[in-house]
Specification:
Blueprint lengths: L1 H12 L8 H21 L1 H16 L1 H15 L5 H20 L18 H4 L5 H10 L10 E6 L6 E2 L3 E15 L9 E16 L5 H5 L1 H6 L11 E8 L5 E17 L8 E8 L1 E8 L1
Helix pairs in contact: 1-2, 2-3, 3-4, 3-5, 4-5
Length: 288
């Protein structure tokens, strides 16, 4: 299964399969890399189920069947007998679901998009020269809030995507003291002291605390927990726009220290606001 997952990651990286959203593409890469890391600990049954679930969720049943069938035909001989049997069983189940829903599998290539009028159909992902020229003309791309997806990762757990995280802000403070000498009005330089990273998280509140989204078993076991009791977690912001540009920003070791909520008949929605400290940050980086 390891070689099959690596083959899938290579197809995604080379734009050999069509995925409608750049964000969905990046999230699928993250999920497959997580499965690669955990497969030895979780076992081959878990690995196959997660691969099917991740690809089907991102690409839909019809297109995911074509991709999974392609992987089986080209890399199935690398699987053990048990893995091959389970993979084939789940693939047959997926085909039965498609037949039951009356969905016909077309013969179009994996990289082709049958939907007309989208950016991807005008600039096919297998046409590297066209795509490169297109991106060069729009090299100074930017993102709005609707182009971003936020996920929170707790050590030992898979990332949890938070659609209700409506605002993230951070600031960095580093202590610097001027070095002065006799006979000089200006400073000779500055010392570099400790760095502090802090910021604010704002969640739209639906029907439960964000803590229970991160650690679901707490709710199942009836335990109560506040955000400041959570272990250190990472926040990953994935950005992608309609021109194919992608960027990421990651805040590491987040720990909240204040929490606030206002509920009022004058407000149409309720928000939870947290102030946090962080250990480190990777600034926004463009992905190639």
């Amino acid at each position: 299964m390891e070689l099959l997952i690596q083959a899938m990651l290579k197809l995604i990286k080379e734009n050999s399969i069509y995925i409608e959203s750049g964000i969905a593409k990046h999230q699928l890469e993250l999920r497959l890399n997580y499965i690669l890391r955990e497969m030895k600990k979780q076992g081959w049954k878990w690995t196959i189920s997660e691969v099917f679930a991740s690809i089907s969720y991102t690409m839909g049943k019809a297109r995911s069947y074509k991709v999974l069938n392609y992987l089986q035909n080209n890399y199935g001989n690398e699987m053990t007998d048990n893995e091959s049997f389970e993979y084939g069983r789940q693939l047959d189940n997926l085909k039965n679901e498609l037949d039951k829903d009356g969905i016909i599998i077309d013969d179009s290539p994996l990289h082709q998009n049958n939907n007309k009028g989208t950016v991807e159909s005008k600039f096919p992902s297998n046409s590297n020269n066209q795509r490169s020229q297109f991106q060069d003309n729009y090299s100074n791309n930017s993102y709005s809030g609707s182009d971003m997806v936020a996920s929170i990762t707790i050590p030992g757990r898979s990332p949890v995507v938070f659609g209700e995280l409506s605002n993230v802000s951070y600031s960095i403070l580093r202590e610097k003291v001027p070095v002065r000498g006799l006979g000089r009005v200006t400073s000779k330089g500055y010392t570099r002291g400790m760095r502090t990273i802090t910021g604010i998280l704002t969640f739209v509140v639906f029907d439960q605390s964000a803590v229970y989204r991160c650690i679901e078993e707490l709710k199942e076991q009836g335990h109560k927990m506040l955000m400041d009791e959570m272990p250190l977690f990472d926040i990953n912001l994935t950005m992608a726009n309609e021109f194919g540009s992608r960027s990421t920003l990651t805040i590491y070791g987040v720990s909240t220290y204040t929490e606030g909520m206002v509920m009022s008949i004058n407000d149409m929605m309720t928000q939870n606001v947290y102030e946090f400290y962080a250990l480190d940050i990777d600034p926004m980086t463009k992905q190639i």
